[in-house]
């Protein structure tokens, strides 16, 4: 126990002495949250629209105004022939275009309006198509048949930010914590200090867990920073228990640090540790359900997602923040993270012991 | 009981046999020098004696503990220092000493007492709070020795401890070793400096994983009728490899030819 305590103290000293890294560790979540928080916005509005009005009547101008006042579209320019529209779409200066035929003013219901959408970015195209047809329908006075009433839960305005920000918090936490420990052991190997530890009575698990503890503290500080930016800066409503999130966050921090430790025991130098970290971090961005819904993935890929701690952490984050659920709903994810941490640390200890030989 | 007692110890790495049926007996209080060219198996032998590397075959005891099964106990009772400075450069002198005193489970009182002695021994008075990385080579090396003996080991193992250190610091270092030896500590040292080897009570020559020769330096020189230990070393290597170590500069005739051609 004394040995363990002093490994923790020594490691904390290393971190404190390395001012540049200290600043990085605090600034990274701030920087990532700000940069990605704005970038991951999947809501599309103010799509540039071109107009070819062959009618020039009050009605045709009204139709254009309905589009441009809808917030989804912004009038980019009027064009005089279909060729010009074509060129503008090709060059990408406009994403959509409407062509109003002659005689629209006298018979709006029967005339055919052409609506062009640049499909190269599906997200933009989908939004443009949906809002475009909605506007057209309301304009022609058509209504949905039948008595259809839908209600959206948790996020009634379907703001994408409420979904993406909690996910982003998890992703940033993963990227930072895995890196923290990935370098810790390998650095001692490169500097040769590991040799002196090997011939001392230190047990491999004492060394591995002892080195990890100071980073648990840093992980928690980073977690508080990401929560602050998510809730206060980006104004995502927090529906669940903050205490529960902070506690369960540690289940994730441990598992991510354990991955880093395992990387550190396997790699020979810091460059290898770096490469291996990326090998873990990159697939987890896609497979954890951060970007694409896991339900849409093929079964095999879907199950790979279960091997990634971030998958469980995203459930916990989104569950507590967006839905306000309690522990009874997310205990399985917590258990999975705990088991993973123990398993990874055990493997790391055994691997480290083997490496000595 | 011998401090180190190896009987037909071998170590295999996959296909490669680094140490072949090595016998080694070191008496308590002795300074024993392990000599041999790079890659001869010195470091592997030392790692096995430290309890870090279990032997593939053979039997061995260090301070009475079994090499195969009691590696952890061996670690608690030996001191080790290597050619590479392996203390923490971003910790102060005091922090390094404190860390190692705690790793070996010293009490607060013991730690405090020995800390002062080690600082004195290494000549680091007034520098206790300096970053270790800022110390010069000789100081670093004496500090490393201090940390290696902080737990009063009965056996001290030194793997090329003076590689790349200036002559004055080397002399100082050996004075410290004599002092430790006089206090009854057994010392096993590897070195490439033959003047250092000459200062050992006994030396053993290792080549290709085997121990070729062993004895007191003076006796070996007399027996082989050579001038010094360096010649003994070279003669042994020549015999083993059937190759002359004498320079063959004549073969480098292109140097002269090149000169002519350039003109």
Automatic annotation (TrEMBL), chain B:
Pfam families: ABC_tran. InterPro entries: AAA+_ATPase, ABC_transporter-like_ATP-bd, ABC_transporter-like_CS, P-loop_NTPase. Keywords: ATP-binding, Nucleotide-binding. One of its GO terms (molecular function) is ATP binding. Residues 4-233 form the ABC transporter domain. PROSITE patterns: ABC_TRANSPORTER_1, ABC_TRANSPORTER_2. It comes from the Bacteria. This is ABC transporter ATP-binding protein.
